[in-house]
Amino acid sequence: MTKEELAKHYVENIKSSSSKVQLVKSIINEIDNLTYIKTKKTISASDKIWILEYIHEQLSSNLIQYGLNYIEKSADNKYYLILITNALEMLNGGRK
To answer: Which domain of life is it from (predicted)?
Structure first.
């Protein structure tokens, strides 16, 4: 599975989940432990960041950001976005 396919899969799972908080935490952990098939090495930080940014972008398409707050358009994903943003900050050394 490519990183694009994997990211899309994660987004669909989050959107359809009834336990989003637990699922997002699980996905963040899974992404942190992903390995490349050929080399069996952990995926690069840049690939982790790409996947998390893709998920964030797809989930935030239902929200409008106003300063540090999110205004809901049709679905309440702000808590999950915060979890993903926190994971991105950790991977980026504290930067968003």
So the answer is: Bacteria
